[in-house]
Amino acid sequence: MSGTVKDVSRKLALVAADQLGRRTAKHRVLPDLLIIGGQRCGTTTLFKALAQHHGFLGPTMRKGVHYFDLHPEQSIEWYRAHFPTHGAVENARREGEGRVVVGESSPYYLWHPLTAARIAHALPGVRVIALLRDPVERAYSAHAHELARGFETEPFERALELESERLKGAEERLRSGEVRRSLAHQHLAYVKRGEYIDQLQRMERAVGAENMLVLDSADFWSTPERDWPRVTEFLGLSDQKVSLKQHNARSRAPMGDTLREQLNAHYLPFDERLANWWGHVPSWRR
């Protein structure tokens, strides 16, 4: 089957699933886990790893619903319609003989200025997981990702030069409600999205430190036998072994040394604050 036919088939299946979800929303559950980002830090790989666990259920035919960032005008019942039924959760609980966690992965949640408060209001007590990657590599990877998707047309160095102008006023317009979405804020914030500490503290104030797990992506993928149990313990799941094969990697040419040094210098004060808050030095600063 060609890619185009597969894409059409998937879209039709999604439409059908969404229609069924809306008709049966009252029989469905809300999530108790959100993988909130950061973008290009391994969220897809973590979601796919959790999806292998007998105690985890995700949304229907997708990994993320983007309710709290892109669809806040929708009702909570619209959001609920994307998740498994109470019956499916109970069946999974019986088959796995343990706790069942329902979750989604929408990596714009960490960066969007309004999602933390929205999450806390709609899902009190929800658990959130964030993954952090070297912000220099994250920025470069995000640029390659947005270039491939058609949201970016400029080379990396030029995109960085344009970032401040592109983002000018975007957060304020989102906060005020003047706009519901900002393409530049979502897709073209390469440097700013790597300033993790302010985003994490905003989320902490909303959901509570006890409900947050922050993982160092490089450490996690290099020593999964040590860090995977941290995830299952945080979620109250059994320590079931899963495959931790990485997904969504994109090849690209090496970054120039001068630009890398400039970005490293930019991130240093943010990384120092992050280390103080996190309680350990991130892998990219060791």
Describe the structure.
The chain has one domain (23-285): 3-Layer(aba) Sandwich (Rossmann fold), CATH 3.40.50. The relative contact order is 0.16. The chain is α/β, with parallel strands linked by helices and 286 residues long. The protein has a five-stranded parallel beta sheet, with helices on both faces. The N and C termini lie far apart (48 Å). Helix content is 52%, strand content 8%. It is globular.
Total of domains: 1
SSE sequence, one letter per element: HEHEHHHEHEHHHHHEHHH
N-to-C terminal Cα separation, in Å? 48 Å
Strand content bin: 5-15%
What fold name stands as the CATH topology?
Rossmann fold
CATH structural class: Alpha Beta
CATH architecture: 3-Layer(aba) Sandwich
User: Which stretches are low in confidence, meaning pLDDT under 50 for 5 or more residues running?
Assistant: none
Task: Give the averaged pLDDT, no decimals.
Answer: 95
DSSP, total strands:
5
User: Count of helical segments?
Assistant: 14
Given the helix and strand composition, which structural class is it?
alpha/beta
- Please describe the biggest sheet, giving its number of strands, its sense, and whether it closes into a barrel: 5 strands, parallel
Strand numbers in spatial order across the main sheet: 2-3-1-4-5
Approximate helicity band: 40-55%
Q: Key features?
A:
alpha/beta, 286 residues, 14 helices, Rossmann fold, 5-stranded parallel sheet
Write a concise synopsis of the structure shown:
This protein is of the alpha/beta class and 286 residues long.
Question: What's the structural blueprint in terms of helices and strands?
Answer:
Blueprint: H1 3-23, E1 33-37, H2 43-51, E2 56-57, H3 67-70, H4 76-80, H5 86-96, E3 101-105, H6 115-122, E4 127-132, H7 135-149, H8 156-167, H9 170-176, H10 183-187, H11 196-207, E5 212-216, H12 217-222, H13 224-235, H14 257-278
Parallel strand pairs: 1-3, 1-4, 2-3, 4-5
